[in-house]
Design brief:
The chain is 72% helix and 0% strand. The protein has 170 residues and is mainly alpha-helical.
């Protein structure tokens, strides 16, 4: 709100006029895609085994199979709690780096580990683990892109106007 509307984060609701409330609604609507994508990204991560004694084997296997430590809870632990508050871009960048770092054989192996965790948890027992894992990885790859794209679209008012002008003149 401070960046878009010049409103202090500690401003009390009683000090807002109709224009201020309308401005907040516009900013919230403009960022809804980013919030939805961030929420989806967190949901993907939440579907994986928790880092407990039982889940340690999964995370160890994922690390070995994927060849990247970027996805390990210890490396994203600080980014996850900040993401629901609208700071999902750092988590999105980290996840895209993890996916980018994987070779095709590592991706297949990671998909197998992930898919096996899903079939063992009874989330989707009727599909092969490799299919489930590959679908999860595809979603993990596309969702951070949606987070970053949504954030980028609303940052530059001159860029938005240039877009509108270009399409209006077409």
């Amino acid at each position: 709100m401070e960046h878009q509307l010049g409103l202090a984060s500690r401003l009390e609701a009683a000090h807002l006029d109709v224009e201020g409330v309308a401005g907040i609604a516009v900013v919230a609507a403009a960022h809804r895609d980013g919030y939805a994508a961030t929420d989806h990204l967190l949901g993907l991560l939440a579907a994986l085994p928790a880092l407990t004694a039982a889940g340690e084997r999964f995370w160890s296997d994922l690390w070995r199979s994927s060849g990247t430590a970027y996805l390990l809870p210890v490396n994203i632990k600080a980014l996850v709690p900040r993401s629901p508050a609208g700071e999902g871009t750092a988590l999105a960048r980290q996840i895209l780096s993890a996916v980018d770092e994987m070779t095709p054989p590592q991706r297949v192996a990671a998909g197998e580990v992930i898919g096996q965790a899903f079939t063992e948890s009874d989330h989707v027992p009727d599909l092969r683990s490799q299919v489930i894992g590959e679908l999860w990885l595809r979603c993990l790859e596309l969702t951070p892109w949606r987070v970053l794209h949504a954030e980028r679209r609303w940052d530059d008012s001159a860029g938005r106007q240039a877009f509108v002008d270009a399409w209006a003149g077409a």
